[in-house]
């Protein structure tokens, strides 16, 4: 298995991760605004994830002979096979389970479930509160809760006086993000006074409304109506509180991924038998 051990390689991977993390929400939001259902987008997302995982496992996972490779680790697992298929959420987990380290495997599976739920909720949050607000709130909640849980899981080995001021900055970002959403909702409500309000305007009214021919100017009432007609998730007629609730739920799900993976790899709760290695 190939492991990056240099600082330069690590920083390069981090920059690539930031690039990819910043682009996939925009692409998925664009597909929803063009009428593709989030369920179908998420199916594409999960299949691509599975394909990428298999390719990486049999390439980078096989490179270094000095470390345990992917096929060697597969040969060490035994008898029990779990196939979890939740078709309504398009979640498929197929895991070979060792008889001894099953608690670690279950924690890893829990992290995957949190990731799936968070991603699904995020797609709906993008429609309700917008891409920029959703990413700020979900990422900040993930940092605040995830960092706090990991701090206690790791037996407080980090310096709290350095760690938590940074966490507090992310907590402030959550508050600002919520305020921006409230401001945007009030702004949209004033632009759509002819439709009474965002809470009382139905999708049918949007479909039957007449707008000026040609491309509407971004930010105008005509533009909002045009986007509502094209998008897969209809948000007019829905309470603005729903959007924030979905966003906070997504952030909580994302915040639990890192603690679950940490429990799977470090076994802080001592769920494994003596001498059994972690994942």
TrEMBL record:
Lineage: Eukaryota, Viridiplantae, Streptophyta, Embryophyta, Tracheophyta
Residues spanning the signal sequence: none
GO molecular function per UniProt: ATP binding; transmembrane transporter activity
Record field: transmembrane: 6-30, 42-60, 104-126, 132-153, 162-180, 241-264
The name this protein goes by in its record: Ureide permease 3
Topology with respect to the bilayer: Multi-pass membrane protein
Family as reported in the entry's similarity comment: Belongs to the plant ureide permease (TC 2.A.7.19) family.
Pfam families: Ureide_permease
Keywords, in A-Z order: ATP-binding, Membrane, Nucleotide-binding, Transmembrane, Transmembrane helix, Transport
UniProt subcellular location: Membrane
Source organism superkingdom: Eukaryota
One Gene Ontology cellular component: membrane
